[in-house]
Amino acid sequence: MDNRYWRIEDRPEGFDFASAFALIEEPMPALKPGEIRIRNAMLSMDAGTRLWLTEREDGYQPPLPTGAPMTGLVLGEIIASRADDFAEGELVRAFGQWGDYSQVDAVASGAIMLDPAVADRRAWFGPLGMNGWTALWGIEQTGAAKPGERVLVSAAAGATGILAVQIAQALGCEAWGIAGGVEKCCYLTQEIGIAGAVDYKRAGLDSQLDAAGGFDVYFDNVGGSLLDAVLTRMNHYGRIAVCGLLSDYGSGTRTAPAEFDQILMRRLRVEGFFSPDFMDQGERLTARLRDWHETGTITMPYDVTCGLENTLTAYEKLFTGGNIGKVIVELDA
Ligand SMILES: NC(=O)c1ccc[n+]([C@@H]2O[C@H](COP(=O)([O-])OP(=O)(O)OC[C@H]3O[C@@H](n4cnc5c(N)ncnc54)[C@H](OP(=O)(O)O)[C@@H]3O)[C@@H](O)[C@H]2O)c1
User: Fold this and answer.
1) Which of 40, 69, 168, 232 lies 20 to 30 A from 90 at CA?
2) Distance between the two ends of the chain, CA-based, in angstroms?
């Protein structure tokens, strides 16, 4: 059986993915013991995977080698299995390959069987997936947000951010977002109903932040100069939950806050967190997120691209700001 998949040919420069990937077609190897073969119905586009494409050895996981298939979260049906407890015909989510099919070790790939009763399968990538777990953990555990507190989220109109602001609201906080452009800011305040949005692409970021007032929790997806701008607006004893550093991903910069001293002056706690560290809590987190999702407390807009051949266009949106909500590639249109 042949598989088409995206192979990493080179380290991307910035966000030039077309020069770094090639769409390959070749026969799939035979299944080894413990492996499953998934017919991918959807691919999840996740900004953090950009780090896997660099040479950096000091990241939270080693880089993917060139010549390897691109790895990412996939969702689909198991069409062949040599793994105990993973039966053919089951709907599954796993770290697989950007291809028509994924062939993975069921355990090493974190494969999870999914409830087919969830009407919109895309939710398994957004509210009920890694983005949901990350948003909930970052707001509640790392950010330790309490009812009545003021919570600010960067990249707030993206998949992780849009869940973080809604979860903050569900926990009784006043949620604010930072996003690029009028359309995204209006979406956040009018459709999602958060207290306010700061447009970092508009002139006058400082005055917008001053008008917003101080924050108790900053859920940061971006780092860089935005982090500096927020550090000087944190309330005393505030918490900064470092979720991601988007401003560094394509530029090779490393966030090093010029306003670092505000951590002492304002007695802030700054802490990074990483979803694989709490994968064992997935079932519990999913149950809470599912309740909120089913009651409409949290919603997710989807940015869907059809066709494996268009994957790179979808991926690029994460870094150019082309998306509102979760970016997905659908393969079985
Ligand atoms: N710690 C963890 O375990 C974990 C897990 C999942 C995700 N994450 C992190 O969550 C963040 C969001 O990832 P995602 O996959 O959900 O993507 P996403 O938010 O759906 O898309 C990324 C968005 O970020 C904004 N952005 C991109 N570059 C930016 C920059 N230089 N400055 C400011 N905003 C920028 C863009 O919106 P604008 O138009 O607003 O610029 C873009 O739409 C990433 O930092 C990722 O690493 C962390």
Assistant:
1) 69
2) 21
Residue 22 in tokens: 């090639």
Length of the chain: 333
DSSP category for residue 12:
P
Angstrom distance (rounded) from CA 46 to CA 126:
10
Q: Set out the domains of the chain in order of their start, with CATH numbers.
A: 2-123+302-330 (3.90.180.10), 130-276 (3.40.50.720)
DSSP bridge partners of 98: none
> How many angstroms separate the CA atoms of 267 and 262, rounded?
8
- Distance from Cα 48 to the centre of ligand 1, integer Å: 8
Query: For atom 18 of ligand 1, which residue has the closest CA?
Result: 158
Q: What distance in angstroms lies between residue 119's CA and the mean position of ligand 1's atoms? A: 26
Which mutation among 160, 226, 275, 285 tests ligand 1's pocket best, with the greatest number of atoms within 8 A of CB?
160
For 318, the token pair is 């994460």
At 172 the pLDDT is: 98
Residue ranges around ligand 1 (CB below 6 Å): 46-48, 130-131, 134, 155, 157-161, 179-181, 184, 221-222, 243-244, 246-247, 273-275, 318-319, 321, 323, 327
Query: According to the model, what pLDDT value does residue 265 have?
Result: 98
In order along the chain (333 residues), what is the average pLDDT of each group of 10 residues?
97 96 97 98 97 91 95 98 97 98 97 96 97 98 98 98 98 98 98 98 97 98 98 98 96 94 98 95 96 97 98 98 98 73
CB 184 within 8 A of CB 206: no
pTM of the model: 0.98
What is the spatial distance between Cα 161 and Cα 166, in angstroms, rounded to a whole number?
Answer: 9
